[in-house]
Amino acid sequence: MTIRVRFAPSPTGYLHVGGARTALYNWLFARHAGGKFILRIEDTDRARSTEDAIRAIIDSMTWLGLDCDEGPYKQMDRRDLYAAKAAELVESGRAYFCYCGPEELEERRRAAAAGGGSPRYDRRCRTLTAEEEADRRASGRRPAIRFVSADEGETIVDDLIRGRVVFDNAELDDLIIVRPDGIPTYNFAAVVDDIEMGMTHVIRGEDHLPNTPRQMQIYEALGAEPPAFAHLSMILGADKAPLSKRHGAASVEVFRDEGYLPETMVNFLALLGWAWDDKTTLFSIADLQAKFSLDKVTKSPAVFDTAKLDWMNGHYIRQLTPSELARRAQPFWRRAGLLPDGVPNAAEIARLEAMAAVCQERLVKLGDIVGLTDFFFKDVEYDPLAVDKVLKKEGASETLAAVAATLASIDDWTHDVLDTGLRALADELGQKPGQVFQPIRVAISGRTVSPPLFESLEILGKETSLARIKKARELA
Q1: Exposed / middle / buried, residue 475 (Cβ in 10 Å: 0-12, 13-18, 19+)
Q2: Given 74, 85, 240, 245, the catalytic residue
Q3: 392 belongs to the catalytic site
Q4: Is the pLDDT score of 116 beyond 80?
Q5: Which residue of 64, 236, 375, 385 lies most exposed, with the fewest beta carbons within 10 A?
Q6: What is the Cα–Cα distance from 267 to 265, expressed in whole angstroms?
Q7: pLDDT number for residue 247
């Protein structure tokens, strides 16, 4: 049997990290088994589905590296199929036309609730005669189609993660499978698609578990064998509430734009409910493909640990070559207005790579590189606190004058030579190295914290470095 799984998002917003984890687990399950991963866009909610959301979902999946073997399929392109399958169910007596309008349904729900009864549909259209149906159609009513749910016994789901789950059929009502406008509902369209697309497994969030008994009955009515189901646990914030925007970034796009790497996100998301053992944390994508299995997925909720995500991202950033880091940092420099659009020339690329190298150990996210390197791109802006604390300190102006003289005499403008020359100057002045280096740091960067000093001087160049030291002396 060829494994066939799908990721089926509703395009009503950006790709939430919960959806991204679902997509990842399906993708890993397929890749591990040599199966197929299908993307299906469940766009039947016409009021909320948008083309922008579809593009955002596909862009996020592409960024994560989750390539599809088939799709994207769109449900709105498959309406004829759903109509035909619904007609089959009506013909076989497993579905019926319902002429009850929204207002009367709501009125009956309120009345049932007030009387202590269940607010479920009372199935009154299930027994309409042909004449009664004709009267309703003649009055202009457009019917929905409802599925005839079993009202006795149990529906049992043998979930691959949660084990045996039993549902009382008496708790299920006759759900609408096709709306009056002809648009299918989620539970029906998903089942028809999973049958037609040959899905062997359905791996999805636990919020879909209550839908499963309804769907299993639709499979049976359509004469199809249900796939194996696996329902993933919820992802919680640090406060143990379901992860949402109030916890900070909740969509893949936001994490991307903040400067998290795709390899970080794949590794981190994989661990939100799955573990290979009790100690291994870092996995390449190849590792995950080789090791992933549903029997190691837990049914306990996963907690989204931002501190762990930041640590992991810093690790992956430090694994990049300076060339690759500079390439990935370019969009952040451009967004900050520091780097013009277009392809940098060879000299510019070399300079960007040097900047990336001196910052690499300090980065948590790619976006951090902007604040660490902006003084390389534009005129220095002095932090008033740094000026007061360092440049206006007694003797700072004289120290900078000596520094300027030493630097002016250096022709081999490399960080090793600069290091040796300035340390020798500190000995000559009878000062500790930090007493000499800190005024230089503020002079060239405008602040007390910067990338390594000598490498920064090398990147700035002799002329710019001396000009900034002169400017700093005027503030001292």
Answers
A1: middle
A2: 245
A3: no
A4: no
A5: 385
A6: 5
A7: 60
pLDDT, one tens digit per residue, over 171-202 is 999 999 999 999 999 999 999 999 999 999 99
Indicate the average pLDDT of the chain: 95
**Cβ-contact 440, 469 below 8 angstroms:** yes
What kind of architecture, by CATH, is found in domain 321-372? Orthogonal Bundle (1.10)
State the Cα torsion 297-298-299-304 to the nearest 10°: -100
Residue whose tokens read 């991202």: 313
Q: Which CATH number fits domain 4-68+235-308: 3.40.50.620, 3.40.190.10, 3.30.365.10, 3.40.50.150?
A: 3.40.50.620
Express each pLDDT in 149-169 by its tens digit.
998 999 999 999 999 999 999
pTM of the model: 0.92
Burial class (CB within 10 angstroms; exposed 0-12, middle 13-18, buried 19+) of 208: middle
Under the banding of pLDDT at 50, 70 and 90, the label for residue 246 is low
The residues, any chain, with a CB within 8 Å of residue 2's CB and separated by 6 or more, are 34, 35, 36, 200
Rounded CA gap, 383 and 389, in Å? 10
Q: Which two tokens stand for residue 194?
A: 């999973």
The backbone region for 324, taken as left when phi is positive above 0, alpha when psi lies in -120 to 50, beta otherwise, is alpha
